[in-house]
Amino acid sequence: MPGIRSARLLVTCVIMFLLAGCNPFSDARPMMDEYVERVGRVLDTEPELSRVPPADQMPRRRNRVLPMPELELGMLDFLSLYGCELQYVVGEKNSVMGKVMQPLNRLRYEVRFIRTAGECLETEDNEKLQDVLQEAIASKRESLPIAIWNATWGVEEVEALFTLAKNEYPVAAKDPLSDLARDARQLNSSVAALLEQNLEVDLGFWGEVHQRWQAEYRAGQLINSARLVTTRLGDATRLIRQRLDSRPLCFNGKPNNQSDIVQSMFFSIYIEKIQPYLADVRRARTDLIEPLSGLAAMQTDVMPEHFQEWYQSALTLEGDKSVWAALDRAVESHTKGWQALLEQCGLRPGA
């Protein structure tokens, strides 16, 4: 009966599809909610899902971009007429396109200006011209950190990387952030060199980094996950503490039927589902958040005030405001709760 076999196959496929779609462990939020529910169920306590506090949004671009100091108009006009390659550099800046430079192009201009002015200075004998060139170079070197800041944290693309509109970091993510992590490390090395006034740095790859930031949103997802996991682990820890403060799970350290159920849930859900996700988030934090934190930390001298509070929350790994420090505290507290509970039955992990 080909028709019957086809119908059975169709029904089987539909059932499998529905089961896969209802799997609470396929996404971070339903997985963490389900975990709290199951902890409450096996401990005979009423689970309560707390409100996950929203993460802080990255400051708007107008509050991130720093005003770029300009050379005095008279000096700029003078240099634009000066018979050296510098006149072409200044001329490009004075063009229509030059007046609306994007931050990365403005950084490239600043670096090129300093380099070219230095080359012109080496061949110039006129003392007046030497003084003007030296003054221009000193001014550009002093404002270089501002151009660097605007070309990293002032670009539009970084907003996409840190958007909070793309939910949480995926469960069993298939892309381990290798490209973004490599970009962050390479960018950090480049910025560190520029801040040391090393102008031989290759800025060619920066545009590709910005393009990847525009296409990815992993940093924002990781921040969302940190908030979610911290809150739900806190919910589950409170359930464990409630049970510890009421009646023991086991008497005289002897396991019983309920402790077997609790231990089974501990291994099948917490160890096999929750902990691998925690490991993924931590690994991604190490690969992406930490180098981005370093990128901001090395630029604190010019960091805008509006950015500092967000930096303390989203990027730093320590401190009362840090979402990452809060996550570490939640994991530690939750681990201790499980250890205390299972120890009542002589089932403490690692014992």
Describe the fold and architecture.
The protein has 351 residues and is mainly α. It has 14 helices and no strands. The chain is rod-shaped, with a radius of gyration of 29 Å. Residues 5-20 have low confidence and may be disordered.
What characteristics describe this protein?
single chain; 351 residues; mainly alpha; 0% strand
User: Can you summarize the main beta sheet?
Assistant: none
Radius of gyration: 29 Å
* Low-confidence spans: 5-20
Structural class, from helix and strand content? mainly alpha
Could you spell the SSE succession in H and E letters?
A: HHHHHHHHHHHHHH
Instruction: Report the portion of residues in β strands.
Output: under 5%
| Average pLDDT taken over every residue | 89
The number of distinct helices, counting runs of at least 4 residues, comes to: 14
* Tally of individual domains: 2
Helix content: 55-70%
Termini Cα gap: 59 Å
Shape: rod-shaped
Strand tally, please? Answer: 0
Task: Please state the oligomeric state of the protein chains shown.
Answer: single chain
